[in-house]
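User: Once you have settled down, look closely at the record that follows, taking as long as you need, and be ready to discuss the fold:
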Amino acid sequence: MQAVAPEPGVPAAKRRRRRAFVVTAVVLVGLLVVSALAVTQGWSLEYHTTCETGAVLAEASAVAPVVLLNSPYNGSVYALAGLQPGSPIGSYGSLGTSAFNGSVSSAGLGLNLAVVALHNATAAGPGAVRPCTQPYQAEIMNAGSGLYVGILLTGPGNWSDVGEPSTVFPWDTNVTFDNSFSHANAPSVSTCNGSAVERVVRSSHLTEYLHTNLSGQPVVLPFNIPLSDAVFHYNFPADLGTWQVDNLSEPGGPGGGWAFSYSPCS
């Protein structure tokens, strides 16, 4: 290997001090980066805490929607939701359905669900510090019996999706969901003095709730349907009115597509 010639005119002692300064600066920058990660991202260099699942504490079976559709008054909607490959219910691939004139429709399947215990575990080496925030959680174990498409939660003619049913069937209350209009959080759609309008909406999450008992006490735990992508196609008829929109698929929302509150043209 060819030796690097010393800088001309620079004493050896000064060059050593300069190299020591550079090394020290690099080390300090590295320590600052690690400290920043520790503060902002919860990282640890020597070991880190993770949250792991443990024993099954309870099991339940229920009918759970994969697609929930609110159709605009006098309009229509159709949707297709893909399921994540490799998930407990991913073998179904996708499910779809449609709805018309203010009706609310759904498509889904039977699910076997479980409540599993959570506990903290210590892992050696660097990594994110992610301790458990609760003692248990709900999980989908696998698909149960039954597949349904086009089950109406409410019939046609509704101007508003406020207060719609939160279960697919009145007697099957192990799983609930929220597909109702709560408040307008997206631009309204109006066709007053105008032509028909089509809107396409995508969603990547749908949150539902498992109702069960642990040690004789009722618990309600959220779980997510493993969607890969859900695409909703809404059609609004010409010169009919204005539909306020609650975008359920916004971050922090229950997922799915849109919910509506209609008013006619003045």
